[in-house]
Amino acid sequence: MFNSPIIDLALTLSFTYFSLSLTVSTIHEYLSALLNKRGEYLKNAIECLLFDQDWKQIAEKLYNNPNITSLKKDLNSLPSYIPAGNFAAALMDQFKDDKNIILDMNKIRDVLTDDGIAAQVGISAGIRKLLLNFYERAQGDLQSFQKQIETFYNSAMDRASGVYKRSSQLIVFIISVVICASLNVDTINIVNKLWGNQEALKHAADNLQTVIKQVNEKGYNPKTDTIKFEASKVTVIKNIPADTSKNAPNGKKVAQQISTVSTFLVSSGIPVGWTAQNTPDLKGKTFYQSLLPLLIKITGLLLTAIALMLGAPFWFDLINKIVSLRAAGKKPEEEATTPTKNTTVTVKPVG
């Protein structure tokens, strides 16, 4: 088993970045829901789905279709997430000139091949060309035709999601800087304090390794689950829905999470927070004497903020690799069965 302080320090830093990355994501989700930015971006992405002059009108009709209006949080909001099935069903409804008719492949063929019928239901030539390709692949199977539309939509939304994340990087960085400054999560200070007290470093690393082991045993998946931090415990919350608009955290919950993450890190032995021990002593110093400690403090905070930009999934993956290194030589344990219920993991506070 490796007992290197470097590995212990890497684990402690990675867990700090992981927990704060989750907090940054929560705050970003809260702001996006508050301003409905995700919903606006999604609508814009759907309107640009096809480079066809008539598609925007079709997109407007889709947003008035019950398959999509049912996803709204309230009357004046836009859905922040539209499942592929809902989109495909709304689009296929456009083939109907009478909402009461039962759609079949014959009706779809008529719309796609007859200019008069297509004009009657409002589907342009460019859209018909794409859908005709799906129709031919479906070979007369209505469900297969809908599946073709869903696949096309998912592929387009994957690209749009990547663009959305890149466009959100500045906002995420600003949130990261504010969080690091508010909680005084200074990478340089953490390294100096823990490296100077390796007994405390080992204790913190042991504590965090236990947390990660138990979280993994509960089947935590950073892509679909989240972790709720409390003063001395964490709870794995399984299967967070893709549509977070209806379950977005409110301001009170966001403030509570920021506070509890800070408390959890302190109880785990990580030197964060604006305490005398974590703040440079500038008493009696001139401006120039204070300049270097202040620059070091700012650099430490910025290093943390930059680290948070990598995201919780990155840090969780790295944590597991570090834990494997730290536990090298132990007999591998059997993989635990993945549960579907929320699970609480209690940790031992430091001090």
UniProtKB/TrEMBL annotation:
Keywords: Membrane, Transmembrane, Transmembrane helix. It comes from the Bacteria. The chain crosses the membrane at residues 294-316. Residues 330-351 are annotated as: Disordered. Residues 337-351 have a biased composition (Low complexity). This is Uncharacterized protein. The lineage of its organism: Bacteria, Pseudomonadati, Bacteroidota, Sphingobacteriia, Sphingobacteriales.
